[in-house]
Known about the structure:
336 residues; alpha/beta; Rossmann fold; 2 domains; five-stranded parallel β-sheet; globular; binds threonylcarbamoyladenylate; binds magnesium ion
Amino acid sequence: METKKLKDDKNGIKTACEILKNGGIVAVPTETVYGLAANCYDEDAVKKIFKAKGRPQDNPLIVHICDMEMLKDIAREIPEIALKCAEKFWPGPFTMILPKTEKIGDCISPNLDTVAIRLPDNEITAEIIRQSGLPLAAPSANRSGSPSPTTPEHVWADLEGRIDAVVYSDECSVGVESTVVTFCEQPPRLLRPGGITPEQLRGVIPDIVLDKAVLAEPEKGKQVASPGMKYKHYAPKTESFLVEGESDAFSEFVNSKSDSVAICFKEDLEKIKIPTLCYGEAKSEETLAHSVFAALREVDEMGAKEVYIHAPTKTGIGLAVYNRLLRASGFKVITL
Ligand code: TXA
Ligand code: MG
């Protein structure tokens, strides 16, 4: 199939709406990562998303809305605490799991009576949802397993020829996906760390529980609360290791590795003698979130046998970055 490149202007938005209304799939920008969107009420269109990405059938999708009015058709019950979070974190990198209405089909969340909902902070995509009048089911717009896309070029590299169109807009500002919280249990539970930090969440939900899948390898055959967390994810083709340690120890360690590259902090750069990719500043977790997926994509072009990634702290948005790198490295962690 021919994939159209659309501009993020009036005409591009109009064409995107037409494609979506006609059952097509379009990659759209959000503040977190690019999403691959379809009309959430069109089962055939939603099925195309799974096919284009090569996504496992049991991994449910997030429905994207543009205002609180749309929420009523999608969520059957909205607890007071969820409304408080919506007020505080929307529009933004925050996803709520709520009981679903009968309008949400099995193709969105197979075998579940819940649905994931998010109101993204991106004017172009908000306008596409508003003008089409359609809530959009959208996972990240990458091939399943590969790092999430934070530029339209990343989407193109993964999905050209497999989807109807890509809206070419800016690089994503946050760079990691949304924080996923389930409100279907008391107290609510954090299933996936993301753009909204645990510290921010505790400001609204003091007793929020951290799901153990956030920092641990899921046991084989065990039920996982957020199905997406059980798959090998975000992985470069180069064999990857996550390395925990101070800057001096990290630099000394990687300098003994030939045929390898390091994904490191700005602070490490001058001490490292093997090829490097810098993904930001150790002290600024936001910079690391912004660039982590681009670094994981770039590393494969360097043709090394192994990559050693300097682990961020688990505070702030660093927890989300750590969570993604843990999966990218197949849970292989080296502590110095
Ligand atoms: O920032 C984001 O969230 C991006 C942009 C495009 O909005 N989307 C995204 O979608 O990351 P995706 O499909 O790559 O990740 C959705 C995550 C998966 O881990 C999935 O298992 C989980 O949310 N999820 C979706 N519906 C769920 C449900 N009903 N119950 C539990 N987990 C759910
Ligand atoms: Mg994804």
